[in-house]
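request received
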Amino acid sequence: MKIEGKYKFPASQEQIWDLFMDQKNLEKAIPGCEKMEEREPGKYDVLLKIGIAAIKGTYTGKIEVVDPEPPNRYRLLGEGSGSPGFVKGEATIELSQEGQHTIVSYQGDMQVGGLIAGIGQRMIGGIAKMMAGQFFKKMAKELKSQQ
Amino acid sequence: MKPSAFEYFTASTVAEAISLLERYEDEAKIIAGGQSLVPMMNFRVAQPEVLIDINGIKELDYIRQEDDEIVIGALTRERDLELSPLVQEKCPILAEAISLIGHASIRTRGTIGGSLVHADPAAEIPLTIYGLDAKMKVVGPSGERTLEPEEFFLSYLTTSLEPLEILVEVRIPVLPQKTGWSFVELTRRRGDFYIVAVASILFMEKGGVCKEARICLGGVGPTSIRAEEAEEILAGQVITDELIEKAGQKAAEAADPESDYHASAEYRRDMTRVFVQRGLAEARNRAKGG
Amino acid sequence: MAERRRITVKVNGVEYGREVDPKRLLVDFLRDDLELIGTHVGCEHGFCGACTVLLNGRSIRSCLMFAVQADGAEIMTVEGLAEDGKLHPLQEAFQEHHALQCGFCTPGMLIVTYELLKDNPDPTEEEVRLAVAGVLCRCTGYKQIIDAVIAAAPKMRGG
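response:
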């Protein structure tokens, strides 16, 4: 399943790059993130607790930053599994400048399997996009608090 | 598959249900009609440790008229609403929308409250009440509050109901006579969740002029939405084919659909236009007494 | 672990008392505990309609309800149609019109159309189609089923 979107931040591209590479910010902004530990540079173990309606679950997973080209682009690999099923995906994140702003756009592909895939088919794309939206909003908040 | 094990409690009053929620909080899930919850439990997507059955709360099962409102208890079965002479006469769009939920044997169990709190983005009741000035009464440990659809629905399967709150009642203003209305939906098969659905209501005044229009779109975002700019095109006008054409185009612009397994975003947007136009034409005919 | 509960249900006129696990689906209770295997389990998520039974006179999907929830209820399954070993007129019509082939959906078809004819003794073809829309048949197609229901209607009216 393809997902994509973009978000605009009122800061320079370098600032936004640093924002997105900082583990502390990610930990705060990733929806449902309970714990995030750096195993080696750019590789993290995460524990997510996600509950939408009756579908509650704890996921353990890995996030990895690959091929970073500061401050323009990087790739993000992620996978997680928990009692409701598994999620696996990769995305390319691109930063570009527009006046005083930086546009962060993502383009990704994700696979969902196990129990959630069976019943959530209709909504998974939308829910993924909603969670991406929550993530960017929180990142924007972090940016503001640091400015 | 079969559901995983759970503790089972029955509540016979709202207060009992809330105290059970307080006791078990996160682990508990309320079951009403169970027509969405039980499939999820059978798939083990949902594995609540505690189930609080509210089917025994008889005080939440009623349909009555109070002044200019139809007042419906949250536990009222969809089938009872669909067949209610009061609902058919005073709020026919609701009866029609409900008749399109699943199949009769689903509606026998499914409740209005269950459909609302489940907040499926492709459900008929949540869509229809966007156009009806409906108010949802919820009760929790610290008292009750009343919410409008825009406050109640937050996103996919997500409402503003607090973990210890229960929806107890829905109040819907009676539609004036000669109100034009229509509920149309695009589904692959009868009874499926819709791809796109449109609920239209035309409040009329003398001389065949539309005083106010409501156009509600479903299946094109995380919650149902009102196509307000399209509604404005019709307000204060005698509704012509040209205006319907324009309103359909405007409504399609308001839609923000996702692509999924069943339909692409482009298709959903274009069907929004088509179904708004179709729905408005039907609503106009009904307003004329047709 | 979840406590078992004692329930009493009346099925096809016979009262049964049993202890059940809360997670026991009504359809499994009917089939495995009461050994009324006429009701079929298909999809287990309310989609196929094979498990349809009447609960207090109205059709429901017995895979979408727990047996504990049926405590005190009256249930009619497909076994409740025939009387004293004689097929119900609706069943006879199904037989005459070849309205079943593999028979998997048949209990669901019979219950929903029985309910229809009870509420609406003289349905149009459209109304019959609507009633059976909620039960999936993968072999005969629906034509013979609809023919059978329409043929059964006057016989049921005539008593």
